[in-house]
Write the structure tokens for this entry.
Amino acid sequence: MNSVTPDTFPAAWEIQTGAIEEAQFPSRRWHIVAPADMPLAALAEGGAWRRVADKLTLHDRVEVVARDSSWWCELLVVESGPNHALLRPLAKVEFPREMQDADDLPPNIQVFWQGDRQRGAYKLKNLSTGQVYPSAYASRAAAKIAACEMFSHQMNGAAA
């Protein structure tokens, strides 16, 4: 049997009758927004899941992001039952502090929401010139990251 490596992994599979004989049940994907002040490590505490544990079923995937975008993780439900679930971490990312704090934005740059509640985007504005940059961002965190990347020379110069 040929071994599959990341280099030889097929881009698509033709489905035929074979070793996998039965699809037992569908799984679901959950998206949870955790409070901004909740550290990533707090997910390991049972109390964090009190209101959702009984909704999770075997092989569900759970994506959790902090409201302030300071961290993100993905979990897999490996066991579930009445009032409990066992989740295994698949991936986690903790974003550097400079990507979170408005204080760490470049001088005279502001992140703001432009549009109504349903339609709009986060934008960047240069407070010294009044210029609004044309790029639109889906989240405040994405706009902050872009500002830090666009104006890193100003930030590095300010720190020197």
Notes: The two ends are 60 Å apart (CA to CA).
